[in-house]
Amino acid sequence: MRFAVIDIGTNTFHLIIAEFVYEKFELIYKTNVAVKLGEGKINQNLIIPLAFDRGINALKGFRKTIDEFNVDRLRATATSAVRSAKNGQDFVNAAKNEALIEIETITGEEEAELIYKSVKLSGAIKDLSLIMDIGGGSVEFILCDTQSLIWKKSYNIGAARLLQQFFKSDPISDDDKNAILFHIQTQLQDLFEVCEKHQPQILIGSAGAFETFAELIIIKNNQNISIENIKTYDINYDDYIETTLRLLNSTHQQRTELPGLIPLRVDMIVIASLLTNYVLGRTKINQLKLSTYDLKMGVLASMI
């Protein structure tokens, strides 16, 4: 059987197609489109017309590919940008009518659960761990060990939201940094209470921004590793700190010239750096790992 998963994110739409044979699955196709569904008015809970049209056009393209691969089962999930938008249901309806794709808008709790499943599938969880997934609209945290999910929560502090609300300078100023940090510390108090109680020793970053951090470190160290071909990657803490300080002190133009940094993340990565550094500091964690498996792989696992 062939399964397809569409992950409708705030910044990027993903499509993966997998074939399931003899109790094993193999990815046979994957692609993504930088739709930027949250562009412009995510903090006003609105999908603007241009972003709306980009999203529907991307889904029409996905439908064509799905038909070409003769997919047996499809699951399309939408996250923060759609679930929080006043016209989110209009987008869901348009996707069904124009692209023949039925979208399931999942809650933040469901999103965190699926991220946990995906990271577990990657083999990244070896000990008591804090999983962090930085999306455009929301950030999910999951406390877990090799046996079970202990605690999970989704927060509306995604990179696109913080970017639009606070990022007004180039390079980012101390005032903008402080405004972001003040905002997130008020949001994440219960996260830090849970971490104080359980004391996880490692932070596992789920794809996205953490793939960018890893890519920048791999290029800097001339490592012969392709992110495309691995499930996990141990991120050296000192390399990570050096990389994020460079990102935080750089201009937009300087970041565009960095090999390994895709255009969509040129500014988002500054927000991701601030978020991750703050969480590491508050939780006193100094071990980092990348899981290249994220939400869509959790959705695939739940289907199979």
Label this structure with key terms.
six-stranded mixed beta sheet, five-stranded mixed beta sheet, 45% helix
What does this protein structure show overall?
It is a single chain. The chain is of the alpha/beta class and 304 residues long. It is 45% helix and 22% strand. The protein has twelve helices and eleven strands. The protein has a six-stranded mixed beta sheet, sandwiched between helices. A five-stranded mixed beta sheet has the order 3-2-1-4-5, sandwiched between helices. Strand 2 (13-21) and strand 3 (24-33) form a beta hairpin. The chain is globular and about 50 Å long. The termini are close together. The mean pLDDT is 96.
How do the strands and helices of this protein lay out in sequence?
Blueprint: E1 2-8, E2 13-21, E3 24-33, H1 49-68, E4 73-78, H2 80-84, H3 88-98, E5 103-105, H4 108-122, E6 129-134, E7 139-144, E8 149-155, H5 159-166, H6 174-187, H7 189-198, E9 202-206, H8 209-220, E10 232-235, H9 237-249, H10 252-256, H11 268-283, E11 288-291, H12 295-303
Parallel strand pairs: 1-4, 4-5, 6-9, 9-11
Antiparallel strand pairs: 1-2, 2-3, 6-7, 7-8, 10-11
Helix pairs in contact: 1-3, 4-12, 5-11, 6-11, 8-9, 9-11
